[in-house]
Amino acid sequence: MKKTLLLFAFMLATVFAAQAQLHLGVRAGANYSGLTGDEAPQTDRLFRFHAGITSKFFLTEDQFFAIQPELLFSQKGGESKDDNVKTKISYLDVPVLGHINAGPIYFEAGPQVSFRVGGDIEVGGTNVDDDLDQFKSTSFGYAAGVGFAATSLGLNIGVRYNGDFSQLNDDDNAPEYRNSVFMLTLAYMFPGR
């Protein structure tokens, strides 16, 4: 985990050191989160949220293509069909996306690493477990989305899906759960240099 954080910090430092087109911003929005997997019992989705910082390092002068690293606090999880059992897990997500501007429309996709930072399991509205060590502390996945950018205002709104390649449980005998999150996201990009 430390190596991944150091790699991300090095990547951000490299971006800051470059004299190229760099834009920084903030991002927040709603998560519609669920747990999926071939062996997982049927679950419903929960509305959660995400918030954090975003950046774009443009690799072309016409700002057509950028690398977009982000650091987001993101709440995920799911609930049983009868709404009695809720699994809520919080992560620090670090997606590194390729970003393509096609006029006011943009497309983004890339890998993501997630670090578990908290969560709990509720049964009947009562917290029964806030030590979620049965879930992996790090997961690897992907993110992809599309959106609309009002570049003169610095605002953009988009939809994004992110999912895990790795299962959540450390126990090989447990059902294979993976995070599956639909995001509605709003970002404000500060003026670039």
CATH topology: Porin
Number of individual domains: 1
User: What is the 3D form?
Assistant: elongated
**Number of contiguous helices:** 1
Pfam family, one: OMP_b-brl_2
Protein name: PorT family protein
InterPro entries: Beta-barrel_OMP_2
Domain Outer membrane protein beta-barrel: 18-161
If you had to describe this structure to a student in words, what would you say it looks like?
This is PorT family protein. Residues 1-20 form the signal peptide. The protein is mainly β. The protein has one domain (2-189): Porin (Beta Barrel). It is built from one helix and ten strands, in the order H-E-E-E-E-E-E-E-E-E-E. Strands 1-3-4-5-6-8-9-10 form an eight-stranded antiparallel β-barrel. The chain is elongated and about 50 Å long. The model has no long low-confidence stretch (mean pLDDT 85).
